[in-house]
Each structure stands twice: as C-alpha cells, then as structure tokens.
Amino acid sequence: MSKIGIIIAREYSTRVRKKSFIIGTFLVPVLFALMFVIPMLIATYSSDNKVRTIAVDDQSGVVAQKLEDKENIKYSIIDGAVAEQVKKDLAKSGTYYALLQISKMDSLNNADVSIFCPEQVSISLKDQIQSQVNEILSANKLASYDIPDLENVLSNIRNTSRVKTLKVGENDQEGKETSVGAYMAIGYISSFIIYMFIFMFGGMVMQGVIEEKNNRIIEVIVSSVKPMQLMIGKIVGVALVALTQFMAWIVLTFLIVTGVSVVTGASSSSMVKQSVQAQTAGVNIQGADVAGIDIASLNAGENPADSSAVNEGLSAIAPIFNTLKQMNILGIIGTFLLYFILGYLLYASMFAAVGACVDNQADTQQLMWPITIPLIIGLFIMMSAFQNPNSTVAVWGSIIPFTSPMVMVARFAYGVPAWQYILSVALLIGTFLFMGWLSAKIYRIGILSYGKKAGWKEIFKWLKFRD
C-alpha cells in the first residue's frame, strides 16, 4: 500500500471509531426521522372522532332548520324559552356539549352567533360551526335580493382558476404540469447539505492538523512521508468518513421512517390524504341549500358532486409527483456528489493550511475569513437562485469555483446549459488543484512551526519558498 493509502486508512479508521462519530451517526438519523414521523403520528392519532351534541337556540328563524349534522357534531334544536336553563345545566347535566345561540336578524339581515360551553371549544369545532352558519346566513341574504337566476350569475362571475406551470419539450408541445416548489426543495436541501458538510468536515481536517501538531506526532509522521502526501491523505481520509456517515444517515433515516410506517399501519399515501383533510377541514364545509343556492359549491366554483375539498388538495399535490417523475434524478444525484466532493476538496485544503499555521483553535479566527466569506456569499446567492435561477448573479455564482458547489446544485434541477456546467466543473477542478498546491506549500512549513501564530506576512513568505 502506498504511503498516501496508509495515511488515508489510518485517518479513516481512527475517526470512525470515535464515540462522537458513532453517536452522531445514529443520533442524526433519529432527528431526521422525527421530522417525518412526528407529523405522521400527529396526522394518524390527532383526529377527534367523539360526537358532540350541540343545542341550538335560533332566534333568527333561519339557521336551525338548515344545519346539517357532521361526523363529530350533532345538532339538537331547543325552544328559546328553555335556552337559559340549558346554559346553566351545561356543566353538570352532560346532555349537551355546548349551546349555539343565534340572535334575531338586524336591519341588514345580520345575526350575532355565540357558542356557550363549560370548556374551551377547539378551533376546528368552532370553524366547522362558524363556516356552516355563515354559509346559511349568506345564502339567506342572497335570496332576499330576489335576483333571477342568481346561482348561475354567481357561478359565472367567480373565477377559481389555478395557475399551472407546464414544461414543454421539442416533441412535447402539450407539456407536463410541474411544481416549482419541488425544484426549490431539492435544490435547497442539496445545497444546504453541501454548505453544512464543508464546514463540518473541513473543520474536522483543521482540528486534526492542530491536534497532531500540538501532540508533536506530526514530527514523527513527516519523517516517513512528505507533507504533501500527509495533507492529501488526511483530506481524503476525512472525505471517506463524511461519505460513510452521510450514506449511513440516509439508510438509517429510511429504515426508521419505514419501520414506524409499518408499525402504525400508515402508508405515505394515507398520510398525504390525512394531511390534506386536516388542512381543508372546516374550510370548505358543505352548507345548506337555501332558496336553491349552495354557497359551498359557489365558493368552490364548481358542482360539489364533481369534486371535494380533499380531491382539490390532492390535485394540488399531483404536480409535485409529476415533477419528480420528470426530473433527471440520476443527474441530480451525480451533480450533488460531484460538487460535494470537489467543493469539499477545495475548502478542506484551505482548512488544512489554516490548521498548519496555528497552535490552537482560538488562533484560527483571523485566518478563517478567506474561507467563511465565500461560503456565506455562496449561501446567499443560492437563496436568490431559487427566485430566479437564470439571473446574472445566479449564473456567475454557479461558475465561480468558491460559490459554485452550493449555487450550481441549486440551479441544476431547473436546467442548466451544458457549457455553463462544463465550465463550472473545469474551473472548480482547476481551482482545487491550484489552491491545493498553495495550501501544500503553507502546510509543509506550517506544521513544523511552533510557539507563534503565523500572520499573513509570514504566510506570503512561505509561499515564496521553492520546493
């Protein structure tokens, strides 16, 4: 085995045996899985199936007869004369959960609506009652205008068009519906992972150099290998640790989420349906048909027999799945891995050089700004690239090597011209080789310098030394 290979194997085996690596490898997937599992469990077990009987005191004479029982609500009309007694007995009798009281109509056909209950009424129950009462009162007001063919007039003037985005190709002029949100999500997650991992594992390289320098182990190692070989071995070894941990996170997260789904009996499709139902519950409640006018169907802009709120929610999610089917998934994964590796190699060589210039972690702050500023700028450009992936800033951000690992990954899902992609990769490789050469010159001298923090003036002198 070559000397670099020995260093890589040592660096890898040493780090994967650390408690911090083992704990992080198993703890992070649990946290990731909780992001999926908790909403899944909430959607599965938070539904309230208890039927509550609501007493109705309708002084308006309009609402009570039009109220419709729901899965969790049963209405019971009472005489106004006993309403006050029912209100007093709510807490102790248990006959009714609450008292719904509608006042008399005013001159504008409006009425006050009150719910009396011995406990705090949930927001979902309040919304269901409020939505149904408002629809009935609105229908009553519309009917009072006595406008001929009012239902068709309202249907014709109400526009509920949903703007669709369709991606067309040379041989597909009809196009396929897509979701901008899917592009944004994939680009953002991929870019942020690269940003996070560069900082995390680049810092690991720097910390490792400082520790070996302080322990004087470096003096023994450099007697057998060249500083350049040592730096490359350390960078590649940590890179393999990063890839191992990243793949472990993906596999463990998938296994945890799948296991919880099997145990709870909740499939991904059912979770989507429950989520949509939760979001639409109490919003598009079917109201009563007053004077032949179905307010709920008019608000939806369509016949309620044709669709429901849940179907509308699921149809809005469909473009996301269409987008995922149309995406070049292998290209996205390949681009992510390529820029992840090249971006890491570029910045890890700079982190290693910084670690060689100092004796402790506290002294690194002054030398870190050439590393942190480009990374932060790349993160900001990546954020703006979601809004306009083909803007001048986004294009140049995806080409300049110090920002391209984040920005190009964010843009790739939208579609990037081949020349921009090739130029970006070529410049990133060239910059890595150049910065690696500079970092090696600094590393060669810095790792054997003790007792004094190197300043910029001294670093420039090291760069002038001939090999």
Summary, kept brief:
The protein has 467 residues and is α/β, with parallel strands linked by helices. The chain is built from 17 helices and eight strands. Helix 13 (365-387) packs parallel to helix 15 and helix 14 (392-399) packs across helix 15.
- Outline, from the CA principal axes? elongated
Order of helices and strands: HHEEHEEHHEEHHHHEEHHHHHHHH
Low-confidence stretches: 271-316
- Binned, the helix content reads 55-70%
Number of strands: 8
Number of domains: 2
Q: Indicate the radius of gyration in whole angstroms.
A: 33 Å
Tell me, rounded to a whole number, the average pLDDT: 76
Strand adjacency order, main sheet: 2-1-3-4
**How much of the polypeptide forms β-strand, as a percent range?**
5-15%
Find the structural class using helix and strand composition: alpha/beta
**Main beta sheet:** 4 strands, mixed
Fill in the keyword field for this structure.
two-stranded antiparallel ribbon; 2 domains; alpha/beta; elongated; 8 strands; 4-stranded mixed sheet
Topology of helices and strands:
Blueprint: H1 3-16, H2 19-45, E1 52-58, E2 73-77, H3 83-93, E3 98-102, E4 113-116, H4 123-144, H5 150-157, E5 165-169, E6 172-178, H6 180-214, H7 217-221, H8 227-264, H9 268-280, E7 289-290, E8 293-294, H10 295-300, H11 309-326, H12 329-357, H13 365-387, H14 392-399, H15 404-412, H16 418-446, H17 456-464
Parallel strand pairs: 1-2, 1-3
Antiparallel strand pairs: 3-4, 5-6, 7-8
